[in-house]
Amino acid sequence: MELLDVLRDISQRLNTAGVPSPSVDAERLASHVLGIPRGEVLARAHRGGELDAHHLEALEALVVRREKREPLQHLTGNAPFLSFEVSVGPGVFVPRPETESMALRAIDQAQTLAVGEHGLRVLDLCAGSGVLGIAIAREVPHAQVTAVEVSPEAFGYLEINSQALAPENTLVKEDLGSFGAQSLDDSFDLVVANPPYVPKDLVPNDPEVADFDPPLALFGGDDGLDVVREILGFAPSILRPGGVIMIEHSNLQGESVKALLHEAGFRAISIEQDLVGRDRFTQGFLP
Q1: 151 and 61, same structural domain?
Q2: What average pLDDT does range 154-179 have in this prediction?
Q3: 187-235: per-residue pLDDT in tens?
Q4: pLDDT at 115 over 80
Q5: Could you tell me the residue range of the domain that residue 225 belongs to?
Q6: Based on the number of CB atoms within 10 Å of its own CB, is 42 exposed (0-12), middle (13-18) or buried (19 or more)?
Q7: Are residues 55 and 128 in the same domain?
Q8: Is there a contact between 266 and 286 (Cβ–Cβ < 8 Å)?
Q9: Which of 43, 68, 93 is at the close of a domain?
Q10: Averaged over 47-74, what is the pLDDT?
């Protein structure tokens, strides 16, 4: 069967199923099954290339799952982030492009922060798949990155991804309360966190999120900010004077997070936007 016809058929089916980017998903699924880059899939399709029965069967099985709105990243087993890819699957939050804006700003901060007597120390809280800590470690080789994650399922992916992409990172499997209680010296220069921030009564619109992302990584109490408050309960104790904290949140929570940072003692607080101009994270400096 001609590959171009297969891609068109899959795109139509995914569009009917409500998938936001049906053509791209069709191409990426074909890329995964064929083991070739997406660009080569398109080139092969427009050259009149065909798909054999074995590959067609494997592709069909994935398309059926995508029609049920199982995340594309679960089907391929990986998710792109900046210049690298991480392994993902059930039990770990799939990294979003929106988080790349905070990663880029964190890299900039890490590159400009003065190095203390213990070197440049970075803390990634609610690390999930590890993308923030990995991104910083790859771009700032002198940074000593510690990543903290409590979920056993997510921690498994954190280990896999860190070993492959940033093997020097220190990984801690612990809840935030326990970690904060044991880490009371002002030895970190930069703290980044992408905590759960969805209010508990808010049902996400996208089935990929509502049905497949782990609730532990999504919901943050009545207003979505319980975990942010927990982080800010100990962050001033573990940051050195002049240190920076960055916390991701929804586009509706910027002012609330800014107020929480101010209450916790942070100053020069700013609400920052993601790559499409929506409020996405807030940063502050410890005097």
Answers
A1: no
A2: 97
A3: 899 999 999 999 999 989 999 999 999 999 999 999 999 999 999 999 9
A4: no
A5: 81-285
A6: middle
A7: no
A8: yes
A9: 68
A10: 96
47 and 96 share one domain: no
pLDDT at 257 (0 to 100): 98
Give yes or no for residue 78 having a pLDDT over 70.
yes
Supply the DSSP symbol for 44: H
List of E strands, 2-103: 78-81, 84-87
Q: Which two tokens stand for residue 227?
A: 């975990």
Question: Per-residue b/e over 173-203, b at no fewer than 16 CB within 10 Å?
Answer: bbebeebbeebeeebbbbbbbbbbbbbeeee
Contact partners, residue 59, CB within 8 Å, separation at least 6: 6, 10, 29, 30, 33, 51
Domain identity same for 31 and 130: no
**How many structural domains compose the chain?**
2
Query: How far is residue 196 from each of residues 86, 114, 153, 234, 256, measured CA to CA in Å?
Result: 20, 30, 16, 17, 15
Average pLDDT in the chain = 95
